[in-house]
Amino acid sequence: SSAQVQVVVNGYNPTQQISRHIYGHFSEHLGRCIYDGFWVNEGMNVPKKDRIRLDIVDALKKINIPNLRWPGGCFADEYHWRDGIGPRNQRPKMVNTNWGGVTEDNSFGTHEFLELCSLLGCEPYVAGNVGSGTVEEMSKWIEYLNFNGVSPMTELRKQNGRDSAWKVTYWGVGNESWGCGGNMTPDYYSDQYKRYSAFAKSYPNAPLKKIASGANVDDYNWTETCMRNIGPRGMWGITLHHYTLAGGWWKKGPATGFSEEQYFGSMKSCQFMETLINRHGAIMDKYDPEKRVALVVDEWGIWTDVEPGTNPGFLYQQNSMRDAIIAANTLNIFNNHSDRVRMACLAQTINVLQALILTDKEKMLLTPTYHIFDMYKVHHDAMLLPVQFKSPEYSNGKERVDAISISASKDKDGKVHVTLSNCDPTKKIDVNLQLSGYSFKSVDGRILTSAKYTDVNSFDQPDKIKPVAFKGASVSGSTVSVQMPALSAVVLELK
Ligand code: AHR
User: Fold this and answer.
1) How many domains are there within the chain?
2) Mean of the per-residue pLDDT values of the chain
3) What's the complex ipTM?
4) Which of 56, 54, 94, 60 is nearest to 78 (CA)?
5) Which of 363, 382, 401 marks a domain boundary?
6) Whom does it interact with, and what assembly results (predicted)?
7) Catalytic machinery residues
8) How far is CA 169 from the centre of its chain?
9) Residue 14 within any structural domain of the chain
10) Residues 291 and 339: beta-carbon distance below 8 Å
């Protein structure tokens, strides 16, 4: 069976830019994201610079990764940066208490992370330690990173082999301060934020964009209190964390072999992102009608049970066609709310949660989620074209979600791109887009789809799910007709 939907795309005088930083990523000292992910043993037979895996760097450069958040996550609030500088064989070891109790040898520290960012050509986004660190420690870290004049931290950095400051811009003041970052109340945290932030200095040519640790999912009181106490001039952004869960926190379900009920539950949880952005956004509007402060969704993605037989503290999960739909739908939501959402980071880049890349020793594969980021990169820094439509429903008999998600933009060369997803696993949907004022001559497209939502890319079949040319779209003047197959994500280029 099939359904139809009419979409009005407002293509006149776009004023809202989609920040490329919405397409950011997150790499924590957790499981096999850094160690045995980005950072491998000397003996591993893969292209490397120092111990950084270059096949992974190349894959991430291909999707124009705009930023990378580090070192956590919960790890950030037990990380002491001085343990991660200087000769590697002299760095102290520590316990990673959050993630499996493994030994952290600190071989990947500040210099290594910034080298990785420079290889990737992306902006570093560092999360400072508020939970168990001091104001002085955070302040000195910033001096070490960003100051070029005569100072003790400049000296130390030079001794460690780096002459010029890196000029890190994005600075998180704590992480999940309501939870693993210190179990604080919003009043207490916002006072701490002001104290830490007062000594988090902007050095010459290195203005800091300070980001407050924001709400857990629908904790609107957290956002309200921080906006009131810190105020829109005291921060560049405030975060929001929301993970997609198939059946709630205690019933996440598997990453593969899940039921349709679990699939439906994931779609519902994913689409809740829009409600969260609207409601946190409305609170922010009250204190910040000019929208100076960015809503930074710096942890999102699906969280499932770990793969059987793997360390439960490592959060290693497979990545399915379901996850690709979640990414496609969520990124459309972010684009459409890019007036407020100006940065986001998927959790997490390699081998952890909704990963872009999975590795097995020398082998690596690109997940269905990776391919969505590849298809959607056309939106980076493009101008949003707002869309208006009422989506057909996908229902489990009791509840409903939107089957279709769409966003559109115009790039600096005048090309229009539309990304669409259809989460309905059985119904194809005919989408009719109206872009008044345009007269298109051609449409090109790519599609990501698979027979089942449980399908994955495995080390035996790494290319089972990958984008292919899409022939289901046609243009006639200002009208674009798209036949969206069930369970699919599409990108169109209109010229
Ligand atoms: O991404 C995994 C964890 O989820 C992060 O460390 C933490 O911030 C969140 O609870």
Assistant:
1) 2
2) 97
3) 0.99
4) 94
5) 382
6) Homohexamer; trimer of dimers.
7) 176, 299
8) 17
9) no
10) yes
Phi, psi of 229 (to 5 degrees): -80, -35
Q: Which of 26, 30, 69, 74 to mutate for ligand 1's pocket (most ligand atoms within 8 Å of CB)? A: 74
15 occurs within a structural domain: no
Which tens digit of pLDDT belongs to each residue from 285-330? 999 999 999 999 999 999 999 999 999 999 999 999 999 999 999 9
Residue to mutate, 240, 241, 302, ligand 1, most ligand atoms under 8 Å from C-beta: 241
Q: Is residue 485 part of a domain?
A: yes
Residues 393, 362 share a domain: no
Q: What is the Cβ-side half-sphere exposure of residue 399, based on CA atoms within 13 angstroms?
A: 11
Res. 1: pLDDT tops 60: no
- Same domain, residue pair 174 and 246: yes
Q: How far, in Å, is the centroid of ligand 1 from the Cα of 344?
A: 14
Give the span between the Cα atoms of 251 and 96, in whole angstroms.
26
- Going from the Cα of 371 to the center of ligand 1, the distance in angstroms, rounded, reads 24
Residues 6+ apart with CB under 8 A from 245: 251, 252, 265, 266, 269, 302, 303
CB count in 10 Å sphere of residue 378: 18
Pairing of strands 404-410, 24-26: unpaired
Atom of ligand 1 nearest to the CA of 176: 8
Q: Name the closest-CA residue to atom 8, ligand 1.
A: 73
Q: 346 alpha carbon to ligand 1 midpoint, in Å?
A: 11
Measured by CA distance, the residue closest to atom 3 of ligand 1 is 73
User: Residue 99's domain spans which residues?
Assistant: 20-382
**Total-model pTM:** 0.97
Using the mean position of ligand 1's atoms as its centre, give its distance from the Cα of residue 129 in Å: 14
CATH number at residue 466: 2.60.40.1180
Pocket of ligand 1 (CB under 6 A): 28, 72-74, 175-176, 299, 347-348, 353
Nearest Cα neighbor of 189 from 219, 225, 236, 141 is 225
Q: Where residue 2 falls among pLDDT bands split at 50, 70, 90?
A: low
Instruction: Tell me: do 124 and 165 sit in the same domain.
Output: yes
